[in-house]
Amino acid sequence: MNTNNIPPKAPLTVVKVGGAVVEDDAQLSQLLRDFSAIEGRKVLVHGGGRRATQTAARLGIESKMIDGRRITDRDMLEVVTMVYGGLVNKNIVARLQASGINAIGLTGADMNIIRSRKRPLKDGIDFGFVGDVEKADGKALMRLIETDVTPVVAPLTHDGQGCILNTNADTMASETAKALAAFYDVTLIYSFEKPGVMADPDDNDSLIPVITRESFAKLKADGTVSGGMLPKIENALAAVEAGVSRVIITKATAIDGRHGTLIV
Amino acid sequence: MNTNNIPPKAPLTVVKVGGAVVEDDAQLSQLLRDFSAIEGRKVLVHGGGRRATQTAARLGIESKMIDGRRITDRDMLEVVTMVYGGLVNKNIVARLQASGINAIGLTGADMNIIRSRKRPLKDGIDFGFVGDVEKADGKALMRLIETDVTPVVAPLTHDGQGCILNTNADTMASETAKALAAFYDVTLIYSFEKPGVMADPDDNDSLIPVITRESFAKLKADGTVSGGMLPKIENALAAVEAGVSRVIITKATAIDGRHGTLIV
């Protein structure tokens, strides 16, 4: 019931696509076609993936990983700024333009849309130039979007003191979605290699269609969901609790909002 | 005399800074301080310079130049997209944000602001993925600028068919200035290593304070101005004839609009 006569919010879709899709030309073409076909307001958040590691290797820079997370020293920061903010982002923008989407490429530094703080030492590990998001500016994004522009967001933020910081793309997507939830009815779509959250990782027909805070507790308790899926779902539930209308975890080839696991 | 009662246009400054300044940290810091101090609406257009050549060399890609112009093959296009659109552009944006300027980094592909055409063969030379500007969208830039945003433009455009194209930064600056002249009283400042156009290249006190179409003809005829300065001044005069209020050619450390050679 809308007692204040506030008009219903317009729908907006935030799609997060990972590095594996971005660096495969055929998969990226398909993804961009599907993204272009999504009606209404939308935002694309992309990862970077192994392309940065490859470019670093060619430049003679060693990639240091701890627990699957990249250690971003000064040399690696230059590489991810080049690869994510330049090569990957601008090629996606040019290709969306070619399909009639008025895209604009952004990092968190552009229009100060996502500010972060350099991650402090964790368990004695220095992650280097990695940013933990502090604040996303939904209003600045909304203003752009209302001029029929489609933001394409690279996984880079800034600290407000002149330094770019490497930032997790999943977090960029959820922070962007949460910040836009003040203005829109937001659907956040996480695309990855599986059809969604699976009850049995080895059975592609075991998709769990809906997860709520209550059902998640059970799935976690009985061990149906475990490992890397846990923080993904936790993150999705947190986004819903922060105002995002729904989160969908789905295959990169099925981002139309009618496939995958719905998290509400 | 303004017979139609159209209000006077607001002033706007477009500053072009070359690659040599951009790749020297101390010079870039000074330039960004001076740019931040310019009052009112403004746009920064930057070159890329030798940084792309260095990065290409480290990646094992040979830089091919003909008559001082880069031949942009597919590998080199990736490098300039990374270096100009990512590394250089995003670092400038982050540093301007740190000094309170709400900067946004753009290539011509972003919001389709500058569309170009892949250069056809010239005298049998294939320049590769180089763009000749076809159309700059002053209105899209104006809309951004009117939300207190300062565009930072990298020397890259797109062909509207999904391809990024390497583009001359001087041309990007003049096309941007011309497109914005429909909405603003535009001053275009070309910064470089000399105090301005010099009557005697070996005498730093020989600055020519003002050049017009008429005086340029004389300076050219008597040989006072020659070589690489000729196309620079020709380009500046063309910008003025296309609606830019004034062009200033000046040292990178003197971009306050009160130094250098004024072209009107």
Care to describe what's here?
Chains A, B: Belongs to the acetylglutamate kinase family. ArgB subfamily. Chains A, B: Pathway: Amino-acid biosynthesis; L-arginine biosynthesis; N(2)-acetyl-L-ornithine from L-glutamate: step 2/4. Chains A, B: InterPro entries: AceGlu_kinase-like_sf, AcgluKinase_fam, ArgB, Asp/Glu/Uridylate_kinase. Chains A, B: Residues 12-250 form the Aspartate/glutamate/uridylate kinase domain. Chains A, B: It is found in: Cytoplasm. The structure is a homodimer of 264-residue chains. Chain A has 264 residues and is of the alpha/beta class. Chain A has a single domain (10-192, 256-260), classed as Acetylglutamate kinase-like (Carbamate kinase), CATH 3.40.1160. Helices cover 35% and strands 25% of the residues of chain A. Chain A is built from eight helices and 14 strands. Chain A has helices at 19-22, 25-37, 50-58, 74-98, 138-145, 169-180, 213-221, 229-241, and strands spanning 10-17, 41-46, 64-66, 69-71, 103-106, 114-118, 131-136, 150-153, 156-158, 164-166, 184-192, 210-211, 246-251, 261-263. In chain A, the strands form four sheets. The first copy, chain A, has an eight-stranded mixed sheet with strand order 5-8-2-1-11-13-14-12, sandwiched between helices. A two-stranded antiparallel sheet of chain A has the order 3-4. Chain A has a two-stranded antiparallel sheet with strand order 6-7. In chain A, strand 9 and strand 10 (164-166) form a beta hairpin. The model of chain A has no long low-confidence stretch (mean pLDDT 93).
